[in-house]
Amino acid sequence: MFFERHEGGERAILVHLEGLHPEAREDPQEFLELARSAGAETVAFVTVNRSQPTARYLIGTGKVEELHDQVHAHAADLVIFNHDLTPSQERNLEKAFECRVLDRTGLILDIFAQRARTHEGKLQVELAQLEHMSTRLVRGWTHLERQKGGIGLRGPGETQLETDRRLLRIRIRQIRQRLDKVRSQREQARRGRRRAEIPSVSLVGYTNAGKSTLFNSLTESGVYAANLLFATLDPTLRRLELPDLGPIVLADTVGFIRHLPHKLVEAFRATLEESSNSDLLLHVIDAHEDDRQLQIEQVEAVLHEIGADELPMLEVYNKLDLLDGVEPHIQRDDETGRPIRVWVSAREGRGLELVGQAVAELLGEDLFVGVLRLPQRHARLRAQLFELGVVRQDDHDDEGNILLSVRVPRAELNRLLSRAGEEPEVFIQQHVLQ
């Protein structure tokens, strides 16, 4: 039995399982937020206590009958499960309830489809949807599982189902090729930024932790930010000037969630690579969330999956406006004194300067910020520093020496000085960020 997919705003019954293994357990409050973000009108929330799922329905036959009655009593359009269903379970439940059934992955995919704005984002969502659909295609074509026949319908020896599976595979391959091209374009842009010595910083974190609000506050941008799960899908990059450091590129990225479907991680790999190639990650955390430790662990798990778990990280505890008696401040490592955590309120704009200060300290550890005194014979070295774009101010002293105020990576400066045959005594003033 196949049911057409409709727009949002449908009446939905939510089904949540309790008693499962802790690793498989989901958060009921987060489930409600996911349904709201998808545009569903929740008419009933049913909790099922079951430690062992059944192969046919996931839940027991008694609960299936009870839910069938509720579907008709509430005139529900669909039933959403807070767990992944196998294709056969989804098919069996739709037949039993006589309405559409959606699992957790399908719900998240629907939200992603609504949020995608750019061509790249739409391609990534379509790829994830097609891969999810490919295992459930049989449901839509049970009446066509036979050879085509009749006048004008005698086909190439394929069933309709086989034809559609083949077309799906072709479309999936086309999307992958386009996304590979996007990935290569992103890598080219990153190489350009690296050549210009512009550090990149990515905002990562659990969905709805306030990444986009922080991004807008720091960069004075107008990126869409809302109290919804997965409000941001398409990555946004902005140039930001930091005191004592200079320009950086700040990236706002898609939020993570507990048990984020692997298909989505794969589909959004081109986007997520923006994080894995950053010089620093800002892990935005909802300081008001009771389960924030679980959310932190989930973000770390996804970062591990995309190969970004070894990158330097600064934790940004957001939403101080919802806490009592906590002021914006920087927490430092007891041994090294390096910033490890910043407490802010992105919505109220409190503590934003502390984020800039902490980022400048962490990125400026291998940076020389100061004044170089060069004899006139080193005009070539002066020209090379200008080519790198690291000179802030150019002047001369009374003896005719060149005075250059620079901000340059220490390794690059040492390389240039070595080629010019100069010793570090050419420094007359320096400020190392600490």
TrEMBL record:
InterPro entries: EFG_III/V (IPR035647), G_HFLX_dom (IPR030394), GTP-bd (IPR006073), GTP-bd_M (IPR032305), GTPase_HflX (IPR016496), GTPase_HflX_N (IPR025121), GTPase_HflX_N_sf (IPR042108), P-loop_NTPase (IPR027417). Residues 165-192 form a coiled coil. This is GTPase HflX. CDD domains: HflX. GTP binds at residues 205-212, 230-234, 252-255, 318-321, 345-347. Residues 199-367 form the Hflx-type G domain. GO terms for cellular component: cytoplasm. HAMAP family: GTPase_HflX (MF_00900). It comes from Pseudomonas oryzihabitans. GO terms for molecular function: GTP binding; GTPase activity; guanosine tetraphosphate binding; metal ion binding; ribosome binding. Mg(2+) binds at residues 212, 232. It is found in: Cytoplasm. Its cofactor is Mg(2+). Keywords: Coiled coil, Cytoplasm, GTP-binding, Magnesium, Metal-binding, Nucleotide-binding. Monomer. Associates with the 50S ribosomal subunit. GTPase that associates with the 50S ribosomal subunit and may have a role during protein synthesis or ribosome biogenesis. Belongs to the TRAFAC class OBG-HflX-like GTPase superfamily. HflX GTPase family.
